[in-house]
Amino acid sequence: MSIITKVLACLVAAEFIFIFVLETIATSSARTSRVFGMSTDELQRDSVNTLFKNQGVYNGLLSVLILLAVFVFISRTALICLMVYIILVAAYGSITSNPKIILMQGGIPALTLISALIIG
């Protein structure tokens, strides 16, 4: 796996760790409010808070899986599968929620996918 692919994959993992922190640890913070375009009052609702925390754990796990694929299993195939999955989820979010999601959550994974496919 090339160093470029590894760096890009680490950027994707860092992005999902950031999302994990926002959704799981800083669920009702002003920053989370800005990032997700929701009021802090809405983020403090028990139902929303629970949903965000669950979603945050999912994003944290994606980070772990990416890092495992790159540094433990050193599996280009696993990394490609993860990037395709992330891009598909971002596309779905772009269609159902906010068109910017495809760029915000799918941009770096798309670059990582291209790098993994072309460079290795």
Describe the structure.
This protein is mainly α. It has one domain. It is 82% helix and 0% strand.
**Biggest β-sheet description:** none
Q: What is the total domain count? A: 1
Mean pLDDT: 96
The coarse overall form would be elongated
Order of helices and strands: HHHHHHH
Using only C-alpha atoms, the radius of gyration works out to 15 Å
Strand content: under 5%
Subunit arrangement of the protein? single chain
Question: How many DSSP H or I helices?
Answer: 7
Please give the structural blueprint.
Elements lengths: L2 H23 L4 H7 L3 H5 L1 H27 L3 H21 L4 H4 L2 H12 L2
Helix pairs in contact: 1-4, 1-7, 4-5, 5-7
Write a concise synopsis of the structure shown.
It is built from 7 helices and no strands. It has one domain (3-118). It has 120 residues and is mainly α.
Highlighted features:
single chain, mainly alpha, 7 helices, about 80% helix, about 0% strand
